[in-house]
Amino acid sequence: ATVSVTILDLGGDIVAEFPPRAAAGGADHEIVWDASGVQSGVYFARVEATGAGTSAVSVVKIAVVK
Prior knowledge:
This protein has 66 residues and is mostly beta strands. The protein is built from no helices and 4 strands.
């Protein structure tokens, strides 16, 4: 599948975007986000996977504490 990740703040504004990349299903994958340029608070990661004629979206809550 091709997976893209977008980091959003509580207002829905884009904080960071990661270009789509290929990922194998059934395996763990990591993306490193340098959060040094953002304030402490709650953010959301929108993960979208597309492959084999189907797609799925998941939203993950992230707490940044400095």
